Amino acid sequence: MREHLLAEDLRFELAILATVQGFYQKLLRDSLGGDVPIPTGLDEDSLRQTGEDLPQTLAQMSRWLHLLDMAITPAMLRHALTPDTDSEVAEALLRYFVRRRVHTDVNRDKTDLVATFLYRHPRVAGQWEQHGYGLDGALPLSPFEIALIEILADTDVPTLPEQHVQLLRNFDPLREEIARYRDFNALIDSGIISRVREVKRWLDTSFYHPGVLATVAAHNTAFGERFDQLFTKALGEIKQFAQALDEMGGSILSTVDGVEVTVEHVAAIEQNEMLTADYGNALEKFRRVSRLKKELDRRPPIRKSLLAPAATGQKANRSGGSAAAAKPARTPAAKTAAAPTFQYPVITAQQISAEESKLRRVEESIRVFVRVADAKYRQIVPMRYFNLTLSVAEADAYAASFLEEKSQRAEVARSLIRLVSCVARVNTELEELKRSQSMSSLWKLHADALVVLLDVASSASEAAENVAKAIENGDANAAKSIRECMQKLRTRCDSAVKALAQAGS
User: Fold this and answer.
1) Among residues 137, 380, 458, 474, which is most buried (max CB within 10 A)?
2) What are the C-alpha distances in Å from 372 to residues 251, 365, 399, 412, 418?
3) d(Cα 114, Cα 91) in Å, to the nearest integer?
4) The pTM of the whole model exceeds 0.70
């Protein structure tokens, strides 16, 4: 029986390697324009007839694949992995790379590419987006990490030491930092690509752990989407400028690194080709595009006259509407209280949406604690940096079972929950701001988060005040509880404004 199981395991291993061999053969055939000869005994017919010599065949196949692997670059693998690639092929590649676990940048990059491909192309759309809550208060495994554990179930994956767990925690602030970049130049100048690659190197063999691969794949996807979006925007502006210059009879756009960049050079830039290339190999090209963009940005009068001649004419015909149209759609209500040395950013819908997600997670974590805690202690909620003290009315709101009702008591409870969650989030970001004073990039991250929170808190207070006014004649105690909670939030917001003003100066 044991020998039978061993034979089955060997056949499964051989099937994985045969799948990788088939993929590599096709990849090399497309690259070289012809078939690569397969060693005797490793063709499909021979593999199907393999009997007692399984170990020998496996050893031969492993040596052959190692040789083929030397001819496959990460860039070739990136081109070969398309939305039409079978998930089973990608899973076989992942098993192969993880089992090899070679300590080289090339093998790590290939593993990185395959894991990210599986994350971007799930078997069922949206299956990685479902999350739950751990009963013990710990964060549950992500659905993608669970899938990777199943894929690598028969693979000897590395253990994950505590220092590497700490390294993984860098990815959450990095993803938030990526989401805040609005300009391709800023993204390139941030050095985030090299910083992430350095973190991946520090992870060493732990990189092949399912938890690490799941974290890295999610980061790669978020970064790739943002990078592509900002690069497309920047290249579009450059090409628009080049087209306008060409129509006026010009040919030289600017000089970058001592080389004149012409309209023809810009026209020859292939956006899709650059975006599908390996970031490591194409990084210098991206940097040149960024430098060209900077050179063009230094000539705003020329750009305006070329790119928006119609807008210039319209401006001359307007009386007073242009100033209002150029005004940002949303700015935080607390802006007037800040010192002039701190520049408040314009708040975007994406930032509001991201903050709403954080508030919902805070609401849920407080609700879980209040409902399971002893009645004597449920008003003191332990948070990451502080204890959040709840009033009796606030604790009752979090424990309420009628929050989905369309009733007055449900509106009161929802208002209190919203206000308390805002208080908790402002406190957390204030603590983060204090702890990141020596790190400018992290400080900016938390400062921007506070600006968004001030706006969200202002909206929450307005909505809560409307509820309090509607019920004050019928339920004065509930109205009082809402206003007391609003005062707590107002106090924390005042502290946030002062902290931003002091830190900014």
Assistant:
1) 458
2) 71, 11, 9, 22, 20
3) 8
4) no
